[in-house]
């Protein structure tokens, strides 16, 4: 329930943030090409790109970690010493294991999964859009 509530509250905002972040990466890359390497503007634009990449990476990394760790809950529950526990506890553990078979998959706006693969796709699509802009110049 907590994951569902968090998804409802933050999913749309994260989706918008991903879209704008990808757009900003593209525009910043387009701008940085025309700057002198030793200029202050180049340094600040590089730092800006690093900040945007870090922001997107953190969402994707921790979303990926959440999926991986939630997938390991079943194994962790099974590997515990449950054989000598009361029957009521074993039934509760069985319910937990059955629920945990479906790992949590956080997503931005219930559309874009928060994973490392998504982070790479954002970078690739930003570069592709940048390349298209560069050719039309």
Question: If you had to describe this structure to a student in words, what would you say it looks like?
Answer:
Its main location: membrane. It is a multi-pass membrane protein. GO terms for molecular function: odorant binding; olfactory receptor activity. Pfam families: 7tm_6. This is Odorant receptor. The N and C termini lie far apart (50 Å). Helix 1 runs antiparallel to helix 2 (40-71), helix 1 packs parallel to helix 5 (116-136) and helix 2 packs antiparallel against helix 5. Strands 1-2 form a two-stranded antiparallel ribbon. A hairpin with a 3-residue loop joins strand 1 and strand 2 (112-113). It has 137 residues and is an all-alpha fold. The longest helix is centred in the middle third of the chain and has 32 residues, at 40-71. It is elongated. It has one domain (1-136). The protein is built from 5 helices and 2 strands, in the order ααααββα. It has helices at 2-32, 40-71, 73-79, 87-100, 116-136; strands spanning 107-108, 112-113. Helices cover 77% and strands 3% of the residues. The mean pLDDT is 88.
């Amino acid at each position: 329930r907590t994951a569902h509530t968090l998804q409802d509250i933050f999913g749309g905002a994260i989706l918008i943030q991903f879209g704008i972040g990808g757009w900003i990466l593209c525009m910043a890359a387009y701008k940085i090409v025309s700057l002198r390497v030793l200029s202050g503007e180049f340094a600040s634009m590089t730092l800006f790109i690093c900040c945007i990449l870090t922001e997107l990476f953190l969402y994707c990394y921790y979303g990926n970690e959440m999926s991986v760790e939630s997938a390991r809950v079943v194994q962790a529950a099974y590997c515990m010493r449950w054989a000598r526990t009361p029957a009521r506890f074993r039934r509760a553990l069985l319910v937990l294991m059955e629920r945990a078979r479906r790992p949590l998959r956080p997503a931005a706006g219930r559309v874009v999964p928060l994973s490392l693969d998504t982070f790479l796709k954002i970078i690739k699509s930003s570069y592709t859009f940048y390349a298209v802009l560069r050719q039309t110049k």
